[in-house]
């Protein structure tokens, strides 16, 4: 939004399938909020006859327009551009702050 370059992490081998938010919200009507993160595999949905109605380019355009038109909703997001440590790379005490036993799975 400010014309600054974005950092890219990793080696480029990650695979993602991006879905526009309204398509996901329609597929999961009973989950309108409170999900910080979860994995969505749209292959099962497609087998049930569901398909995305918003392609990548249109979804990205609509998302950018929303952010441009609604700056009061998102404010200063500069902190999201900073690298975040992975839990697996943190010392055991920090990764396990609530004294929950670590799992090997």
Automatic annotation (TrEMBL):
Gene3D superfamilies for the chain: NAD(P)-binding Rossmann-like Domain, UDP-galactose 4-epimerase, domain 1
InterPro entries given in the database record: NAD(P)-bd_dom_sf
Recorded superkingdom: Eukaryota
Listed PANTHER family: DTDP-D-GLUCOSE 4,6-DEHYDRATASE-RELATED
Name of the protein in question: NAD(P)-binding domain-containing protein
Organism: Asparagus officinalis (Garden asparagus)
Phylogenetic classification of the source organism: Eukaryota, Viridiplantae, Streptophyta, Embryophyta, Tracheophyta
